[in-house]
Amino acid sequence: MPAPIRLRELIRTIRTARTQAEEREMIQKECAAIRSSFREEDNTYRCRNVAKLLYMHMLGYPAHFGQLECLKLIASQKFTDKRIGYLGAMLLLDERQDVHLLMTNCIKNDLNHSTQYVQGLALCTLGCMGSSEMCRDLAGEVEKLLKTSNSYLRKKAALCAVHVIRKVPELMEMFLPATKNLLSEKNHGVLHTSVVLLTEMCERSPDMLLHFRKLVPQLVRILKNLIMSGYSPEHDVSGISDPFLQVRILRLLRILGRSDDDSSEAMNDILAQVATNTETSKNVGNAILYETVLTIMDIKSESGLRVLAINILGRFLLNNDKNIRYVALTSLLKTVQTDHNAVQRHRSTIVDCLKDLDVSIKRRAMELSFALVNGNNIRGMMKELLYFLDSCDPEFKADCASGVFLAAEKYAPSKRWHIDTIMRVLTTAGSYVRDDSVPNLIQLITNSVEMHAYTVQRLYKALLDDISQQPLVQVSSWCIGEYGDLLVSGQCEEEEPIQVTEDEVLDVLEGLLVSNLSTPVTRGYSLTAIMKLSTRFSSVNRIKKVVSIYGSSIDVELQQRAVEYNALFKKYDHMRSALLERMPIMEKTASNGPTEIVQTNGETEPSVPDTKLPPLITQPANQANDLLDLLGGNDVVPVIQTTLPTKPASAGGELLDLLGDLSLSGGPAPAPSVPISQPPFLLDGLSSQPLFNDISAAIPPMTAYNKNGLKIEFTFERANPNPNIAVITIHATNTTEADMTEFVFQAAVPKTFQLQLLSPSSNIVPALNQGSVTQVIRVLNPQKVRDVPVCPHLPHILIQFPDLFVLSEKFSAEGSYRVQLYIE
C-alpha cells in the first residue's frame, strides 16, 4: 500500500477546492483511505492519519471512527505518538463516552513518567476531559505533582486540580496543604495557576473562603511587587508587568474582601495604588483598572476609594474604544444605586452617550440616564431624554416612553409639567407606549382640577395636528367628552384661549369615527365622548343622529354602545344627565392593600392608615362584577357580606344593557380605574363626618318597593355609640300565595363609603304575609367628606329575584340621599 499523503499536502489540496461539493469529495476520499489504513493495523502511519483526521474534525466532518486509534497512540512509547494521541483524545473524546475510561491506566502511568513533557501531556488531558471517575482515581497523582519542585509540572498540576475540584468537590481538602505553598513560588506561571486554584476553592466552599482570608497580606505583597517592579522582558505586556497575573489577583481579592471588614481594610491601600499608577493609554491598563473598579465596588471599601473608582469609569466614557465605553456604562448602572451622587458628576458625559451610533451603548446610556433622574434634575434630564425620544430608532421608543412616564410620575415638579411631558411623549411616540398609559394619564388629568381647561385645549390642538397616535387620540377624546364645555367657553387661563364652536368639536370627533387610522377602541372613546357632549352642548339633535347611525355598525362593540346610548335618549332620558355627568376625582390606591405612599420630590404622603384586617368572606366574583357593571365600576366598592349568599343571581335586563359600556372588562370606560378590595367595616377607632349631611336624627321608615306581591321597607337608625354609622334594616314581605325562594339582596356604595351587609334572616319570603325576611346594612363614610353633591354618595341597591321583571324605581326620603332600587 502506498504511503498516505502528509497533513501539509492534505491542507493544500483541500484549500484548492472551489466548491463545497468538491471539498466534500476530497474529504470522503481521504477518509476512505484512512479507514483502510486503520483496518490494516498500519502502525507506521497511524500518527499521520490521526493528525489528518483531527484536521477534518476541525473542519466539521465526522471523525469518531478514530477514537480507538487515539488510545493506541497514547499507549505508544514514542513521544510524537503520545502527543497526537492525547490531542486526539481531548478533541474526539468526552466523559459521555465510555471509551475514555479505557485510557485511565495510561494516564496514570504517564503521570509517573520520567519525562516532564509526557507528564504534562497527561495532566493537560485529565484537566480537559477527565470524568468524575477518572478524577477520583487520579487525584492522588495530581496532588503529588503539586508538591514537586518542577515549576513546569506544578503549574499544569494546579490547573488540573481546578478541573478535579469542579468534578469532585469533596476532594478539595486533599489539595489544601499543597496550595498554601504555591503562593511562595517565584515563577509567574505557578503563581498564576495557584491564584486560579485558590479562586475556585473559595468560590465553592465558604470554609475555604474563611481559611484563605489570612492570605490577603501575602496577595497584597505580590500585587505590590508587580506594580513596583522594573521592566521585565519575560512578563512585560505594553509596559505593564504581567497584567494577566494582576487581573487574577484582583479577582481573588474581590472574593476574599467581600463582606469582610478586616480583609477589605488590608487591601484598600494597594487598590488605590493600582488605580492611580496604572497606565491607561493601552488596553492592557484599562483591563487592570476595570478589575480594580469591580473589586473596589464589591468589597467594603472607603468612600473616597469608591469615588475614585467611579471617576475611572467616567474616564472610560471618554475613550474612543466602544467596548470600553460599554463596559463603563454597564458598571455605572450597577453602582448608581449605592453611589448615586458620585455617578451624578458624570451625568453630562452619560447623556452625550445617547448620541452614540452604537445601539448597545445608546441602550445602556438610556437606562443609566433614567437611573440618574431625581427631583433636582428632572427638568434637564427629561429635556434630553425627550430629545432622544424624538430622534431614536423605533426599537428604543417603547422603553424610553415607559421610562419617561415612570420618572415623571415620581418626580414631577408640578401637575402642568407632568401633563405637558406625558402629552409630549404621546405626540412623539404614542404608538409605542404601554397599554396602561391611557388610563394613567386620564387619572392624572381628572385629579388636576385646575388644569382641566388648559389640558382639553392642548389635547384639542394636538388632535387637529395628528390623529395617527392612537393613545393620544383616546385621551383627547375622553377629555373633550368630559370637559368639552370648558373648551367651547374658552376659560383657559394658562395660555391664550382658542375660539372653538360646538360644531367644530363634533366635526373632529365624527372624523375620528370614520377615519381609517382609528382602531375600534378609539372609535369607542369617540362615540362615548360625543354622547357625553349631549349634556354639555346644545346640539342634541345632531348627536342623536350620529349615535343612531352606529346602531347598525358592523363593529359589535360600537353597535352595542350606540344602541344603549339610543335607549338613553328615548326610554331613559330622565337618567341621561346623571349618568353622563363629570367623573369625580379618582384616588390612586395600591393594589395589595388600602395603604399607598405617594412620593413627590422627596415628600411622602400616606393616603390611608394601615390596618391589619381579618379574613373576609365575600360574594362570588360574578355577582360582584354584575353589580360593578351596573354602577359603572369607577367609584364603587365590593360588598362585604358576613356569610355566603345562597345562590349567585344572574345579571341581565334593559338597565344592565344600558349601562354595560361602563363595565370594567369592556371597552374604554369614561374614567378607567382599578377596583380594589375595601377593608371590613370598622366600628372602632374611626372618626368621620356623618354619613348624610344635615340629616335629622330620626328618619321615618319608607317603602322602597311594592310590586308583584313583594314589598320591601327600609327603617333607619344611628349606631351606638358611634352616631356616624347609619344602620338600615330591610323588611321583605310576600302577599302572593306561593313562597318566594332564593331571595338575594345586594348593595354597593362609592369608594368613599364603607359598607357591611349582615346575613339575612332567610332566603325564602313566606307567602300570604306569614313572615318576613330581615337584613341589616351598615354604612360609614371614613373619608370625612362634607358638602358633596348628592349623586356620588348614593347607595345603590340591587335586589335579584329570578321570577320578577327588571324595573327601575327612584325613592327619596328626608335628607340629602337617594336610593336606586333595581329588582330582577
Automatic annotation (TrEMBL):
One Pfam entry for this protein is Adaptin_N
- A GO cellular component annotation in the UniProt record: AP-1 adaptor complex
Which superkingdom is the protein from? Eukaryota
List the keywords (alphabetical).
Cytoplasmic vesicle, Golgi apparatus, Membrane, Protein transport, Transport
Q: Where in the cell is it found?
A: Cytoplasmic vesicle membrane; Endomembrane system; Golgi apparatus
Decide whether keyword Cytoplasm is in the record: no
A single GO BP: intracellular protein transport
Residue limits of the GAE domain? 697-815
**Where does the signal peptide begin and end?**
none
Q: How does it sit in the membrane?
A: Peripheral membrane protein
Under which name does UniProt file this protein?
AP-1 complex subunit gamma
**Organism from which the protein derives:** Hucho hucho (huchen)
